[in-house]
Amino acid sequence: MGTAYIPVVLTALSCVAGPVFAQSGTGFETFTKKEPIAVSRARLSGSNNGRLQLSCGPRKPYIQDMVHVARSTEIAFDAYEFLFDPVTGNMKPTDGLYGTDCGKGSSRALHNGGLPAGFTYNDMRTVPGLDGGRADRVGVCWYEGQDSVNLALLLVTTENWVQLTRGNPNIDRQDIDGIVAEFGPIPAKTGYYLGDIDLASVGLGIDLPSSRNGGYMIAFGDYDPVTQTFALGYGKPLNWGRKAGNPCAPELRPYWSDENPVDGQFTSDEYISYSTNCPDPQGPMLALLYDPESPRDEIVRPTSQRVEFGKVTSGSFSSLLEVDGTIERVCRFVVPARSGVFARIELDFRPVSTDVGPMKLVAYAAGSQAGNCYLALELWKPGVGYVTVREPRFLYTDLQAVSGEVADGRSFIDGSGNVRARLIASRLGNTVQTPCVSLDGVLLRIERE
């Protein structure tokens, strides 16, 4: 599998901008800056033989040449390494920004001879302090593999990064949010492309993982906005790595690439690692930026807790009230390994304001190596009682974010301005005498209206 480094040179900000030629190690390659014609919020609802079914919000026309006035300039996640072009304001790929200089300049890697990919799925650990936040600007670079009627980028953020042997990446990644950016028709193999998308200019953003063990998926495909179907295999992101000086944690190795075959699913032989001299390792290029002056969603920590053990001969628990939301903390409670045992923890949260939109309850949890561990999440609704927002979820050995959400957060705030939540951990089976579940932390994420 060969690796080609592609020098990226920006042209004018237009979907019809002419190509600019830059010399690479094997001759001349074409690079063009592309802007969307429309952007929608999207969720992946299914896949079938290389076609994805999406559930999309309103299709919002994108105004050209808006990046130069974009307010979102602070890094939330950087697997891109860039400087802002002083004329256009675009994210221009660079090298040496984070100490190590690989000598590649604005070049980026195209792996496996440009063989088209469906999804690529990689780990995401945001800049510390932005867990559960929101980004408003997206930077990507890609190679176009086939003629497209309406080439589009699908970007999905996930709560969990699922490694091989640690669950099923097709279902356990737990998608959070997504966007579809449509670029219109692009002919095949006419060059390499760069997109710098100001989501805030159309009133959109994309949610970031609540834990620091999240992930992101990128796909380039031919999108039909009428049927909301997305045909995979029309492009492939270029690659770069997160160096030691990057404010985000270094890249993990390997990552997932749906290319053997392109079918919208990940299989074990699509868990790949490309070896390069520098940077190493590498993953799909992505930059997510935000505006530090814009209103942020509220992250609420527990203010009080009540613990109940049922049918338990032994067990332990320590406070969840001083949790920083990262995965570095020690375990907070355990459930012993006996059939039918459980631990139930009730938590109170107090939002700053009761004028809220959707709510998401997030717990960071892991199962023991023995498995058969489950965690359910509930929220209290006044006049109704506890409502399940996440059915019992099987836990693997690596730490996961388990979350459930409600659309109308206001109806879950009681007369005193509090939100009550409950976590129920349980085990099935009684053959292994080791702890079942460890809980690292819990938070409530509230979107402001």
User: Helical stretch count?
Assistant: 0
Terminal CA distance reads 49 Å
Q: What's the number of extended β-strand segments?
A: 36
What's the overall geometry?
globular
Overall pLDDT confidence: 81
Beta percentage is: over 45%
Helix content: under 10%
Oligomeric nature of the chains: single chain
The biggest sheet amounts to: 7 strands, mixed
Return Rg in Å.
Answer: 23 Å
Please render the helix and strand layout as text.
Elements: E1 3-7, E2 20-24, E3 27-34, E4 38-48, E5 51-56, E6 60-61, E7 74-79, E8 82-84, E9 91-93, E10 107-111, E11 119-124, E12 134-135, E13 137-144, E14 148-158, E15 175-186, E16 192-198, E17 206-207, E18 214-224, E19 229-231, E20 235-237, E21 239-240, E22 255-257, E23 271-272, E24 283-284, E25 286-290, E26 298-300, E27 304-310, E28 316-317, E29 333-334, E30 342-349, E31 356-367, E32 373-381, E33 385-394, E34 400-406, E35 419-427, E36 437-448
Parallel strand pairs: 3-16
Antiparallel strand pairs: 1-10, 2-3, 4-5, 4-6, 4-15, 5-19, 7-25, 8-9, 11-18, 11-22, 12-17, 13-16, 13-20, 13-25, 14-15, 14-18, 18-19, 21-24, 22-23, 26-36, 27-30, 28-29, 30-35, 31-34, 31-36, 32-33, 32-35
